[in-house]
Design goal:
With 95 residues, the chain is α+β, with helices and mostly antiparallel strands. It has 2 domains: 51 residues; 44 residues. The chain contains 3 helices and 4 strands; from the N terminus they run αααββββ. A hairpin with a 3-residue loop joins strand 2 and strand 3.
Length: 95
């Protein structure tokens, strides 16, 4: 599922950037070191491979009422997207 791969890649890149910003130049020798340090900081390779579901709930306010944008990505190739406005589901798509 392309959104899952895009989201996973974005998440990994953000983790790498956060990890690199906390390292000195002496600690980082190659790009492979950066990736290994980022993976270790996120809990290790086994932990990252064990993740089967990504869930995001982004909330905002529209016309004085809460709006939630809920995305669920599950392996293998399953997902859902919902928009919840004023405690009611106004849009839902299941993949």
């Amino acid at each position: 599922m392309k959104p899952m791969k895009t989201f996973s890649l974005s998440l990994l890149l953000m983790a790498i950037i956060n990890t690199v910003s906390g390292q000195t130049l002496k600690e980082v020798k190659t790009a492979n070191d950066v990736l290994e340090n980022a993976i270790t900081a996120l809990g290790g390779k086994d932990y990252l491979l064990s993740i089967k579901t990504l869930y995001t709930d982004i909330s905002t306010e529209m016309e004085g009422r809460q709006v939630h944008w809920i995305t669920k990505e599950m392996l293998p190739n399953k997902g859902a997207f919902q928009i919840v406005y004023n405690d009611r589901i106004v849009f839902q798509k299941l993949v």
